[in-house]
Amino acid sequence: ATIRSLPVWFDVVHSAYGPVLTSAFPMMHTSYAPALSCAGVAAVTMSSCWIVSGYFTKAFVFSNTLCCDTNNAVVVAGKTYVGAAFLMVVVAVGSHLLLGGGGGVDVLDT
At 27, is the secondary structure helix, strand, or coil? Predict the structure, then answer.
């Protein structure tokens, strides 16, 4: 679904494209997952999933950040990435099942 209006929090004066071109570009929103329907909520959800996943993989522990070799840091970052991706899928599918798809393309329903 294409939205022709800009969100209230979007500052068109300081945009890289200027106020005229920014208001001309349509904004795209996902309609298959209500939890990811706008950029602000999606960013908070992604950050929260990354932090929760990092907590369980101990990605923020001192021994896994500054006091470890590169191979261990890459393995821990990979585990954190996979965990965060899994949590994002759970949030997207869960919000779709609980709140509905939002009237767009229904990718989860067959």
Answer: strand
User: Strands (DSSP E) along 1-110, which ranges?
Assistant: 2-3, 27-28
Buried residues in 74-92 as b, exposed as e (16+ CB within 10 A): eebeebbeebbeebbeebb
pLDDT of 11 reads 55
Written as six digits, the tokens of 47 are 């950050």
Model-level pTM?
Answer: 0.63
- Tell me the C-alpha distance between 100 and 106, whole Å: 9
pLDDT in tens, 57-73: 999 888 887 888 889 88
Share of residues in the chain with pLDDT > 90 (%): 25
Distance in angstroms (rounded) separating the CA atoms of residues 80 and 47: 12
